[in-house]
């Protein structure tokens, strides 16, 4: 079973930046990876995905501000977050989707953006 661990969350002022990291216990080279987030009282929502050869997708709310990337040598995926807004406050989760469509999740890292 793949283990995922997020890091890099914290408290930042509006307009600031954070870089989240997700490390996997095994190879991720053939998998779609993603970042999701869940704010208090809300359902978990997709933030960004990155496919094995590099193509990416973003939620409209973060497009142009966030950048997802991957390093298959280190089995890691990253989320660079710029121009952060209070609405970005949430627990951010790393996701791996297996070939069979099964989802694996990290425990999450909290991002808090103050106004």
Give the helix/strand layout:
Elements: E1 4-7, E2 10-13, E3 18-24, E4 32-38, E5 45-50, E6 56-58, E7 66-71, E8 76-81, E9 90-97, E10 103-105, E11 109-114
Parallel strand pairs: 2-11
Antiparallel strand pairs: 1-3, 3-8, 4-5, 4-9, 5-6, 7-8, 9-10, 9-11
What's the gist of this structure?
The chain is mostly beta strands and 115 residues long. It has strands at residues 4-7, 10-13, 18-24, 32-38, 45-50, 56-58, 66-71, 76-81, 90-97, 103-105, 109-114.
Structure description:
This protein is mostly beta strands. The protein is 0% helix and 52% strand. The protein is built from no helices and eleven strands. Strands 2, 4, 5, 6, 9, 10 and 11 form a seven-stranded mixed sheet that branches. Strand 5 and strand 6 (56-58) form a beta hairpin. The chain is globular, with a radius of gyration of 13 Å. The relative contact order is 0.33.
Round the Cα radius of gyration to an integer and report it. 13 Å
Strand content is over 45%
Low-confidence stretches: none
Number of helices: 0
Q: Give a short account of the largest sheet.
A: 7 strands, mixed
Whole-Å distance between the termini? Answer: 40 Å
Structural descriptors:
single chain; seven-stranded mixed β-sheet; four-stranded antiparallel β-sheet; 0% helix
